[in-house]
Specification:
The protein is an alpha/beta fold. The strands form 3 sheets. Strands 1-2-3-4-5-6-7 form a 7-stranded mixed beta sheet, covered by helices on one side. Strands 8-9-10-11-12 form a 5-stranded mixed beta sheet, with no helix packed on it. The two termini are 22 Å apart.
């Protein structure tokens, strides 16, 4: 399988705002890691009154940097791309300091919750108690004095994931749905591959000049990137089917075949990614197995 051309260069300093375009600043939270890259990107949108997209972790220095970059301009709205803790844990205190209204896709609080062992990051990483003031669905728009953001529902990485399109600008805040530094983690039960692929296809109809992701640098050729990631997922499916045909009959045995030279710390995420693909292949009628699907459940190609 051909390697993707990841873009890992990113000019920034923690706590310092970087201009991303007219009326847009990015501040990177100091929470780097294998799933957050350099850290979570928080975006300040607007010139007169401001919207914040993804305040990031509950970190006093990062919150102070956001307020400092606001420069006394009112922060009227806070948007969340999804309720993973590296994006939403900073919302509560920022809201308390600014009085901002929180807008996001509401999660189903009764949905199955992820046990510790099921999290690719090794901890419970979803804020199931997160409730927005304004519940958003795909197509909903919210406006400030000089900005309008329209929500695009893009489940897959998370069931509540939203991208945000900036009105009158060929620009999309893509959250964790499309990033330049790595592929998106799709980890069941939180992630669902069929939803992720469908959500990528939705973006193919857009004509953006740039995506601003939740982690990593700007994506300057976004439609080409989306096409490459769709092709990558198809290649991954084919490699899984090939591994099956060669005798790797469980997810646990498939993982080292399709992820060669894998770092041990990435094994849980890789296992869940293969599981997500196997679930998709089962839905397509290409793989058969008994349920519930587990790493050691025997699979067969149809």
């Amino acid at each position: 399988m051909a390697a993707l051309d990841f873009k890992t260069d990113m000019a920034f300093a923690y706590g310092e705002p970087s201009p991303m375009g007219r009326g847009i600043l990015r501040i990177v939270a100091n929470n780097p890691g294998p799933f957050t890259f350099k850290g979570t990107n928080s975006y300040l949108v607007g010139s007169t009154s401001l919207a914040i997209i993804d305040p990031g972790p509950d970190d006093a220095d990062h919150r102070a940097a956001i307020l400092r970059a606001a420069g006394g301009r009112p922060i009227t709205h806070i948007f969340s791309t999804h309720a993973h803790r590296d994006h939403v844990d900073g919302i509560s205190k920022l809201k308390a300091e600014t009085g901002a209204i929180v807008a996001a896709y509401p999660r189903d609080s009764d949905a199955s919750r992820i046990a510790l062992a099921d999290s690719p990051s090794g901890s419970i990483f979803v804020d199931y108690g997160f409730l927005p003031d304004i519940p958003l669905a795909g197509g909903d728009s919210v406006s400030g004095e000089d900005w309008t953001l329209t929500a695009i529902h893009t489940p897959g990485h998370a069931p509540d994931h939203l991208c945000f399109a900036l009105a009158d600008r060929p620009m999309l805040f893509s959250g964790d749905h499309v990033m330049a530094w790595n592929t998106t983690v799709v980890a069941p039960p939180e992630g669902r591959m069929v939803d992720y692929v469908t959500s990528l296809e939705i973006l193919l109809d857009r004509r953006d000049d740039v995506f601003l992701p939740g982690h990593g640098g700007r994506i300057y050729d976004p439609q080409r990137t989306v096409k490459a990631y769709l092709l990558h997922r198809r290649w991954r499916e084919q490699s899984i089917l090939s591994a099956l045909s060669e005798g790797a009959m469980t997810i646990r045995r498939i993982v080292p075949v399709v992820y060669q030279n894998l770092e041990p710390k990435m094994l849980p995420a890789a296992t869940l990614s293969v599981q997500a693909h196997v679930e998709f292949l089962r839905e397509k009628g290409l793989v058969a197995c008994d349920l519930p699907l587990t790493p050691d459940r025997e699979l067969s190609a149809i």
